[in-house]
Amino acid sequence: MLKAKIHVFLKPSVLDPQGQAVTNSLHSLGYDAIRETRISKYIEIKFDENDEEKVSKQVHTICDKLLANPNTEKYAFELEAVRD
Amino acid sequence: MRVSVITFPGSNCDHDAMEAFETRGHHVSQIWHKDTDLQSPDLVILPGGFSYGDYLRCGSIAKFSPIMNEVIGYANRGGMVLGICNGFQILTESGLLPGTLMMNKSLQFICQHQYIRVESADSPYTFGLDKGMALDIPIAHKEGNYFTDADGLKALQDSDRIVFRYCDRDGNVTPDANPNGAVDNIAGICSENRRVLGMMPHPERAASSHVVSQDGLFIIKAIENYFNSR
């Protein structure tokens, strides 16, 4: 069984108001050295399949079709062999 | 006119849209998202709401509803599709309109009266209206911050596809009049063939004498005049 650990994150050029709000909160907690916070999504998908090449291809398609919005987001993932 | 309003699980402005057009004497059909028959419409409306609970991204799951294949085919054959609020989000997620509706800059859900300026009369939805007129149309959304990159924005500007911009009462398009941070104050855009329109404000909520503004009727009457002129 393979687990895909997928990060979907905003492109650097896209403003992240949530991240800005968190930065402001962290500053008010006294963490003055924090310059920027970016919020992203983390998604795990388990596959009943052990062929990494096959799964990798599917994860790319899944991200392109549904999990990421190509206008504003990018994604990265890694595969991990797991037992159920 | 024959108007088909699509109901997704989580749509909540479908009946408002139906009533707005029924009151004007049109034949309105409510279409469930699992149906595959649009019932020969002259206009399809994707209403506001929270389809699929806004899971993943607003509108991203609705594009896989069976009826959306029909809506996309209908639009590609030149059919008229009006997406309001969540409907606008579904249109961008489905690729019928460019760009993305992102979270409001303020991170707040905004529910208020809002003026929008008619920027182009070259659409069925603004047919016969004066360019530059300001309409009072309510907004109610958390993800209405329209974003497209610099090239995408230029393409919209160059092809006169920005149909509505947020403005103040006097029609001035200013940063202060922008409720959600949308790029270039964009409140509504149309497709290349000008027959698909997405807008965040709710004209169907400003179409009855029981509510504060009736400016939504300008848009509904423009659609009627366009239809009758054909």
CATH class of chain B: Alpha Beta
- Largest sheet features of chain A: 3 strands, antiparallel
- Beta content of chain B comes to 25-35%
General shape of chain B: globular
CATH fold annotation of chain A = Mth169, Chain: A
Query: Largest sheet of chain A, order of strands side by side?
Result: 2-1-3
Instruction: Report mean pLDDT of chain B, rounded to a whole number.
Output: 97
* Count of alpha/pi helices of chain A: 2
**Element order of chain B: H for helix, E for strand:** EHEEHEHEEEEHEEEH
The overall strand count of chain A is: 3
Query: How many strands appear in the DSSP assignment of chain B?
Result: 11
Radius of gyration of chain B: 16 Å
What's the CATH architecture of chain B?
3-Layer(aba) Sandwich
Task: Kindly list the characteristics that best describe this protein.
heterodimer; A: about 80 residues; alpha+beta; Mth169, Chain: A; 3-stranded antiparallel β-sheet; 2 helices; 3 strands; about 30% strand; B: about 230 residues; alpha/beta; Rossmann fold; 9-stranded mixed β-sheet; two-stranded antiparallel sheet; 5 helices
Describe, in plain words, how this protein is organized in 3D.
The complex is a heterodimer of chains A (84) and B (230). By secondary structure, chain A is of the alpha+beta class. Chain A has helices spanning 17-28, 52-67; strands at 2-10, 40-47, 73-81. Chain A contains two helices and three strands; from the N terminus they run E-H-E-H-E. Chain B has one domain (2-228): 3-Layer(aba) Sandwich (Rossmann fold), CATH 3.40.50.880. In chain B, 22% of the residues lie in helices and 25% in strands. Chain B is built from five helices and eleven strands. The mean pLDDT of chain B is 97. The interface between A and B is medium-sized, with 11 and 20 residues.
